[in-house]
Amino acid sequence: MKRYSGLALLRNALDYNRNWPPAWRSPEPKKSYDAIIVGGGGHGLATAYYLAREHGFGNVAVLEKGWIGGGNTGRNTSIVRSNYLWTEASLLYEKSLKLWEGLSRELNYNVMFSQRGVYNLGHSLQDMRDIERRVNANRLNGIDAEVLGPAEIQKAIPCINTSPGARYPILGASLQRRGGVARHDAVAWGFARAADALGVDIIERCEVTSIEVRAGRAVGVATTRGAIAADRIGVVVAGNAGVLAGMAGLRLPIESHPLQAFVSEPIRPVLDTVVMSGAVHGYISQSDKGELVVGAGIDAYNGYGQRGSFPVIEHAMQAIIELFPAFSRVRMLRMWGGIVDICPDACPIVSKTPVEGLYFNCGWGTGGFKATPGSGWVFAHTLANDRPHDLNAPFSLDRFASGALIDEHGAAAVAH
Amino acid sequence: MLLIECPWCGPRAETEFSYGGEAGIERPADPYALSDAEWADYLFFRSNPRGAHRELWNHAQGCRRWFGVERDTVSYRIEKSYRLGSAGSGRPAAAQIEASEEKRR
Ligand SMILES: Cc1cc2nc3c(=O)[nH]c(=O)nc-3n(C[C@H](O)[C@H](O)[C@H](O)COP(=O)(O)OP(=O)(O)OC[C@H]3O[C@@H](n4cnc5c(N)ncnc54)[C@H](O)[C@@H]3O)c2cc1C
Ligand SMILES: [Zn+2]
Fold this sequence. Notes:
The structure holds two protein chains of two kinds.
Chain A: H1 6-14, E1 32-38, H2 42-55, E2 60-63, E3 79-80, H3 87-101, H4 103-107, E4 118-122, H5 125-140, E5 146-148, H6 150-156, E6 172-176, E7 180-181, H7 184-197, E8 201-203, E9 208-214, E10 217-223, E11 226-235, H8 241-247, E12 255-264, E13 274-277, E14 282-286, E15 292-298, H9 310-323, E16 332-342, E17 349-352, E18 358-362, H10 372-385, H11 399-402
Chain B: E1 3-6, E2 10-13, E3 18-22, H1 36-43, E4 52-58, E5 66-72, E6 78-82, H2 94-104
Antiparallel strand pairs in B: 1-2, 3-4, 4-5, 5-6
The structure holds flavin-adenine dinucleotide (FAD) and zinc ion.
Zinc ion binds next to loops of chain B.
């Protein structure tokens, strides 16, 4: 791998940037691997990277049906935070946040992680009680969190409407200063390049069409580029988790829903932090290019179509204009949808399955981008040792039968 | 925006309806006879198909009745909508109401 550096930039500029090597190879799939990761989103690529880097796996492939990062990784609003209510969840997301803090250096790739702070607004007495409770829970877990009142919010975010006459007045907010945003594509590309350098084969345009199970053990997959055998198979396909589970005869407590987002035309810097509101249901930040990046809620119905309905967009827009009346005249440029894998307790499943050698990492739903490095880290551990790490042990598939659900619905403000 | 045909009121905009999830999930007649895994399957596990899906909708801002819809989850095309329960009774089967309420809780 050719290291990226200031000097390398300078040297390549002298050649008119004609001599940069590709960031990763495009190898033909081998007949067999020690481990196969199905799904080349951020989570799958991170898993492959940590398998090679932390667990010494030299013979790993990532199989991606389209192009890497073309799923939810490249479609999300990139909010990163760790202020979840329950200890199990907050420790997992905090592990991820710690990895984010060193990620650009670790990968030698600028993932543009920007710790600009994340505000979760409260609009009612109950919202504020929930916020106080969550902030206290966060602090007990060693996670930075504070409660702010309307005056402090107004001072930090001049264009927000904190007037008491608003339809949903802002009564306060939690703030996690270490939260922020990152460049979504860069996370996929950075992990891909670093994994490739450690010998991982990244195979694009390779759709897994069936999983071969023999005597209760997964032994390989059929793909659009031929059959591939593997010792262990990790499935990380977000909204398509149910389809892959079906290939191995499993059912999941997951339903797939469209989730939409949109960006505005670029405008001058106006918002230097991230604002989320669960009550009016919208969240917003401004990209480095100047676009306002706005996210909506899920469409209520099941869907795999990577698009949703217009009323949901309208609803999110109303929320944003309620919070930022000045944005009513900004024009929207693009909108799109991803397919998110919704779990009943709004927490992921990172787990062994009843099929030996087959592992699932799914159910991140509307909020898994922030977990990308941490998810890969614990999933690699699970595959390598055939047993979960302490951090993901509570996130097993068994919890739905045992009843040990981790109910992050609403508890973590808005679900992103 | 989906155009959904209520079997009583005719085609209406999606915003008049609320979604009730997968259709045909029956509340177990004797819950105490189930294993934990079977109970979990009833409560939480769904078929979530990529393709044809039978689902419940409620005409919340119209006649307020539950009915069934068969819809493709990739194209979102609605193949048909139908009344629940015995033909012409106009009343959804109790099991299906409960199943959908369970889901929304
Ligand atoms: C609009 C939107 C906004 C969001 N906002 C946020 C946010 O602000 N913060 C946050 O933390 N999270 C957010 N999320 C959630 C986040 O995007 C996801 O949880 C996360 O990116 C999931 O990553 P992944 O790598 O598991 O999935 P993906 O990136 O979807 O990767 C899965 C990959 O599997 C591939 N695949 C599927 N089937 C097969 C097959 N049969 N064979 C081979 N490959 C297959 C797909 O092509 C895809 O590339 C948002 C999501 C959306 C849609
Ligand atoms: Zn009706």
